[in-house]
Amino acid sequence: MAKTMFEKIWEAHEVRDDLIYIDLHLVHEVTSPQAFEGLRMNGRRLRRPDKTVATADHNVPTDGTPVAKMIADTLSRKQVETLEANAAEFGVPIFSLGSETQGIVHVIGPELGLTQPGMTIVCGDSHTSTHGAFGALAFGIGTSEVEHVMATQTLVQRRPKTMRINYRGRLAEGVTSKDLILATIGRLGTGGMTGHVVEYAGEAIRNLTMEQRLTVCNMTIEGGGKAGMIAPDEVTYEYMRGRPGVPDDFPAAIERWNGLPTDAGAEFDREVEIDATAMSPMVTWGTTPGMVTQVTDRVPDPEAMDSPADRESAERALQYMDLEAGTPMEEIRPERVFIGSCTNSRISDLREAAEAIKGRRVADTVRAMVVPGSALVKSQAEQEGLDRIFEEAGFEWRGAGCSMCLGMNPDILIEGERCASTSNRNFEGRQGKGGRTHLVSPTMAAAAAIEGHFVDIRNWS
Amino acid sequence: MEPIEIIEGPVSVLDRSDVDTDQIIPKQFLKRVERTGFGEFLFYDWIRDGEIELEPNPILVSGRNFGSGSSREHAVWALGQFGFKAVVAPSYSDIFYSNCTKNGFLPVVLDEAECRSLAESGHGRIHLEEQVVSWDGGEAHFEIDPEIKRRLLGGLDDIALTMQDEDRIDAFESGPGGSYGPETTALA
Fold first, then answer.
1. Which pLDDT does position A461 carry in this prediction?
2. What angle, rounded to 10 degrees, do the helices at A33-41 and A74-90 form?
3. What is the average pLDDT value for chain B, to the nearest integer?
4. Could you tell me the pTM of the whole model?
5. In which domain, by residue range, is B140 found?
6. Distance (Å, rounded) from C-alpha A107 to C-alpha A55?
7. Considering only residues 49 to 88 of chain A, which have any Cβ-Cβ distance to chain B shorter than 8 Å?
8. Looking at the domain assignment, is residue B180 inside a domain?
9. How many structural domains does chain B have?
10. pLDDT at A359 over 90
């Protein structure tokens, strides 16, 4: 019988009904301490340290603080040091602050070759959906589930529903995978994928690079999806080749992985068709990622919305964002620009942003920062001279971490500040209390830093 | 985990949709390494700014896509430690819903009209075994996965239950599936 990629992976991991085996458990400092404590209290061991890896990312300062014990914030320091102590106690490999392979958990998995097609991957972090770009089943879990995986290397799960989004045609020049996923969420809504594992397919997806695919799967959770997936292909294998964690017999692995893509005729619970050719650079205007429009558009008018719930949400969002309906998106003026996060902090994101701003200056009204996703991305960028391009343009060049995506470290907005951000959530207060976030692609963020307002990257020169 | 049978009492109402976990428990309170101490920080910014007022009643009613965003289980701990025992909404994010069920905190799905009636009546009764929510002048059936219901009714611990099947996990690991994926310890 024809099967979807999800079904093949799910069935290969069923220990019994509703219990699936986990091939890789990624651990970070914020959602793990209570789970380790649970193991200790119950006298349980961590079953498979060799299928577990830890890194410090959410809390770490990006100012070059070299080791955990020098983190200035007491609570952050305690959390990172607790992670280090727990990893040592339970035998878990760890890349903590100061390690040359430290970084955002969803950046280092792919970069170290730990993320591979056909695997089940979990982490106590909703953006675990990122790893599905390799044709893996990857999703975020809560701390109780983190403890469950630590103790049993399995997870109690009801089989989710399946959905496929087929993108017709290719993205136009200047339109990125960030715009593709923002446009998709704008169309389907923040709950549009709830309960479903989503397979992204079609010509537009096939033509994305591996890092662009990671951006798409990363934001699946913003559409409510359980997990996002993309079938592995030559692009996937080319990206993986030579990375430390990949199988020794790579050709044999490719042969196995080639069996993963969805069979012709396999059925999904839901299918959606979207025209990729018509997509534009996108900018969010509100306080959910679904509140998004084309850069060439205007801030929408809540009065024109059909449902009362949408209208109320939009009114409150505009008030919070201090925006007036009808304002052209290009007239919105961010004072801060953040290029980073598990969505857009990989080397290709930094290359594209650097290319866009080379030889220009950040506007006087803007403070802009670039935060590489990992220590390896940072050193690669420095080898290529990207750090100098950014610094000469007036961007701050920082150390690796989650940084201003979620404001758990010193990188935050102050009340009322408006930010063009390449991250994934524009929730109220996400980047700092009272901060106003507009989600965009790296090149759109870079151009906004130079001009002091949003511009349509397609005709920006 | 405390078993759930009947949850009854006054209803608190948070009439918003897409209430995300960043609002339920803002990030500055995620730095604790314990499971306790979150209740007083529930909806910290909204309450401190006077945007909302909430009484710690047994039942919270809210809008669609409740608990969206971050996977932080701290959101459920905060709701429970504040005093809520159940939340009723038209829909939830998947991770939040699952986190509730791991903590003996009952997430109930009713449609928007039913949520509104319950909110207006101000007092509700949730009978988990019968899968019924009743309020003055109305009642509604709700769906819940039978296995999740069994675990909530019994207050059963997932890990202990799974460990009863340890021989099956052993068997899986000795088969071809056990060696799939990289050995992380080889890298560090």
1. 79
2. 50
3. 96
4. 0.97
5. 6-173
6. 11
7. 49-53, 58-59, 75-76, 78-79, 82
8. no
9. 1
10. yes
CB of A188 within 8 Å of a chain B CB? The answer is no
Question: Is A173 within 8 Å of A281 (Cβ atoms)?
Answer: no
User: Does residue B111 fall inside a structural domain?
Assistant: yes
- DSSP E strands: which ranges in A96-195? 120-123, 137-140, 154-156, 161-168
Tokens found for residue A453:
């307002």
Neighboring chain B residues of A311 at a CB cutoff of 8 Å: none
Is B123 part of a structural domain of the chain? Answer: yes
In a domain, B182, yes or no: no
CATH of the domain at B43: 3.20.19.10
Tokens of A207: 């033509």
Closest residue in B to A9 (Cα) is B177
What are the tens digits of pLDDT across the range A268-283? 999 999 999 999 999 9
How far is CA A448 from its chain centroid? Answer: 21
Question: How large is the ipTM?
Answer: 0.96
d(CA A296, CA A96): 43
Closest by alpha carbon to A165, among A112, A223, A111?
A: A223
Residues 285-344, chain A, touching B (beta carbon < 8 A):
288, 309, 312-313, 316
Among the listed residues A222, A220, A307, the one whose alpha carbon sits nearest the alpha carbon of residue B21 = A222
**Beta-carbon separation of A191 and B64 below 8 A:** yes
